[in-house]
Structures are given as structure tokens and as C-alpha cells.
Amino acid sequence: MSMTATILVVDDELTNRALLEELLSQEGYRVVPAGDGQEALEKVARVEPDLVLLDVRMPKLDGFDVCRRLKNDPGTRLTPVVLVTGLAAVADRVRGIEAGADDFLTKPFERVELLARVRSLLNLKSYTDELERAESVLFALARSIEAKDPYTEGHCERLADNSARLGERLGLPEEEITALRRAGIVHDVGKVAVPDAILLKPGPLTPEEWKVMRDHPVVGERICRPLKSFRLVLPIIRHHHEKLDGSGYPDGLQGEQIPLTARILQLVDVYDALTTERPYKRALAGEEALATMEAEVAKGWWDARLFAEFATLITAPARDT
């Protein structure tokens, strides 16, 4: 992490803020002060700090509340938070852990300990920043592939949204729902290896062209494999074109061999393809698409239970926001 890292120091006592600002500024860090929890949240949104040093006892919002809000917000979840406290009770430590704190610093603190904890967490933040940049590159690549075909505009976002909604409806763990959102964006990233003449062909593909197209899930998995954060995404990428009767690709998996998350994405993908206009076909209305898919369920292609849940999700009235 660069020595120009920004640290937000939050404490309602001016002397404490001044002491921390002096110590950290001497090390080359940019220090942004805040006098209470509400001001802290406002400054986090404005300056996007690399680390937050957060006093526990403050007016308006205490440190536990601020920490909890930061850790519940996807935009700030990975920002390290150190709770600075004079409280030594185990119960207070537990509250901090439950709020999502990354570390604790007990008052009065030693300069050496403070700087060691700051450096450690800033190094961790630099790793997560690199990970986010790598993910952003993959997402950009996936969207550039989508952009080649005007008929697929918005396809990735629809798959990410509807797959996550179906996952939530089924009560999947949060990490699997996150994997579904990511997979919705990058599921077809392997098409980067498919020539445009095949990818954008308006008519049926030849057997040779189909062979090239059927390799794209394997290529996509290989592209995303280096990212450890994509561990749960890889099976979705590889298997979202499998069918329950074993007639899908690339591995010809059957039934429960196909991961649940892949079965979720494939249903959403099929529905989106049916309801999208292509050069060689018209877009089906929602009811027509579901009727077509129901016939395919009867053929043994798709998971009947998942299809019933998906059909209910799609036909349910939109909730007021």
C-alpha cells in the first residue's frame, strides 16, 4: 500500500484525534478527521478511505453502529475498520467482532503497536484492491463481448439480477448468491475465443462451428480460474449449458451432477434467450417462453422444481420500491 493511503480517524475528543493525526501524518499517511459517527459515514462516502480508526464511545452513532453499517454496505465492506476503545470487557470485544471489526486497539495505545496494525491492514487492503481490479477487468471483458451483438444488450445484467433473485427465493447462502451475480456477468467470457464469424452468424451453425462454440464454457472457466474469489463461480461458468438428461455440454453431466447454481443460471439464460429478439427469430412473450420451457422440462432438459420456482418468480407482480 502506498504511503499516501488515506486514513479516517473518528473520535469525538479533539485531543485524541489530534494525537492520531500527528502520529499517522509523520508516517506519510493522509489523515481525515471526523468528530462523530454520522460525520464518519458522510466522510467515508466522500473520501473513500483505505482504513478507518474508529472510537467506540461517541454521540449520535457509536463505533459499533458505524462499523456495522460500513460492513453491511457492499461498497465499503472491504474497508478495514479498527475499533479504538478503552473498553476491556469480553462482551464489548464480542460486540465489535459481531459488528465486523477487523482489529482492536486498546487505549492507551503504544505508537509502535498502532503503526504495526495500520501497516498490516493497509497491506491487506492493497490485496483486496488488486482483487477488485482483476474482477473489474473480467467484467469489462465480458461486457465487451456482449456489446458485439446488439441483440444481447443488457443480457448479462438481467442474468445477474434474475439468477440472484431465484437464489434468494430458494434460500441459498449469501456467498452462492454473490457467485450467481458474478456468473451472470462472466458466464460467457469464454466467447472471447469464438471468432466473430461464428459468434454473430445470423443462421444455424455448422457442426464444425458448433464444436468451437461448445468449447466456450471450458475457456471461460480457464480464464477465471486464477481468481480465488471466483471459486464458486467456476462451476456455474463451466456447466450452465448442461442438461438434466445428459445431452448438454461440455461434460454431458446428468441430474444432480449439475451444480444447483449452474441449473439456476441455465434456466434464467434460456428464458432470456427466448424473450430476446435475434436475427433468426422473434422475441417470445413471457407466457410463450415459459410454455416452451415447460415442454422442455417434460423432455427432461431442465429441473422441474427449479422451473416452478422460476416461473412463479417471473410471473409475480413487481414489488413496490
Ends apart, CA distance between termini: 40 Å
User: Tell me, what is the CATH class of the largest domain?
Assistant: Mainly Alpha
Query: Which secondary-structure class do the elements indicate?
Result: alpha/beta
The total beta strand count reads 5
**CATH level 3 topology of the largest domain:** Hypothetical protein af1432
Q: Name the overall outline.
A: elongated
Strand content range: 5-15%
Measured on Cα atoms, how large is the radius of gyration?
A: 25 Å
Order of helices and strands: EHEHEHEHEHHHHHHHHHH
How do the strands of the widest beta sheet line up side by side?
2-1-3-4-5
Mean pLDDT: 89
Q: What kind of sheet is the major sheet?
A: 5 strands, parallel
Task: Report the uncertain regions.
Answer: none
> Please, what is the CATH homologous superfamily of the largest domain?
Hypothetical protein af1432
Helix content: 40-55%
DSSP helical segment count: 14
CATH architectural grouping of the largest domain: Orthogonal Bundle
Descriptive notes:
- With 321 residues, the chain is of the alpha/beta class.
- Helices cover 55% and strands 7% of the residues.
- Helix 2 (37-47) runs parallel beside helix 3, helix 7 (174-186) packs across helix 12 and helix 13 (286-298) runs antiparallel to helix 14 (304-315).
SSE layout and pairings?
Elements: E1 6-10, H1 14-26, E2 30-34, H2 37-47, E3 51-55, H3 63-72, E4 81-85, H4 90-99, E5 103-106, H5 111-147, H6 155-169, H7 174-186, H8 196-199, H9 207-214, H10 216-224, H11 234-239, H12 260-274, H13 286-298, H14 304-315
Parallel strand pairs: 1-2, 1-3, 3-4, 4-5
